[in-house]
Amino acid sequence: MPPRPTAVPSLFPEAPSPNTPTPKKTDWINAHCDGGARGNPGPSGYGALIQDDHGNVLAELSEFLGLRTNNYAEYSGLLGCLQYALDHHHPRLRVVSDSELMVKQIQGKYKVNSPDLKPLWQEARSRIAKLEGFEITHALRHKNKDADRLANEAMDRGMRRGPATGSSASQPTPSPIKATPYPNKSEAPPNPYAKADTMLRGFTKDGVVHILGGATLPDGVFVKIIRE
């Protein structure tokens, strides 16, 4: 009589239980997204928590975006969620964001007047058109805590800060997935706040930078003053 087979322990203890419902590709998935910048513009990032319709976590998205504005980061969070849905063949997506401006612009209730946001809005509408179903709603920040945490983690990474201290710091967390808002970098709008190597001559008076030769600096640009 052959020996009875013995149970082999799972090599992947964090794998979903067989009883966990597997999302159908026709089901809705739900995303909470957030974006922020430390300064406006400043070091920025976005985060998003994506779940199936049963509340199971499908992905955590988190990416540092460089020197950008708050609104750029908010739109990047939406684009990251849309790209995740398209890449993983989820045809129906619900998005929750605490950016009232972005939500109402996507809903068509607000006009998009900013030249910096117009290409982001257009790209978002293009990706939405590829889905079978899409909904976006506004929520207050306290209802968007996970996405806010992931956005701040992205900014911390970009600024090379250590992990937050406290009881939650010792808890293992899954590595975030990088869902780049623009997979093809050539399609991304130019960054007006990117670092430049240009050196200009001028002087400071009463805390104001004056550039010689009549040159002007755009609002929000960071300058390093070198004494001659």
From TrEMBL:
EC annotation from Swiss-Prot or TrEMBL: 5.4.2.12
Sorted UniProt keywords: Isomerase
GO molecular function: nucleic acid binding; phosphoglycerate mutase activity; RNA-DNA hybrid ribonuclease activity
Domain of life: Bacteria
Pfam family, one: RVT_3
Record-linked CDD domains: RNase_HI_like (cd09279)
Domain RNase H type-1 per the UniProt entry, residue ranges: 25-164
InterPro entries: RNase_H-like, RNaseH-like_sf, RNaseH_domain, RNaseH_sf
PANTHER family for this protein: OS05G0353850 PROTEIN (PTHR47723), POLYNUCLEOTIDYL TRANSFERASE, RIBONUCLEASE H-LIKE SUPERFAMILY PROTEIN (PTHR47723:SF19)
Protein name, UniProt field: Phosphoglycerate mutase
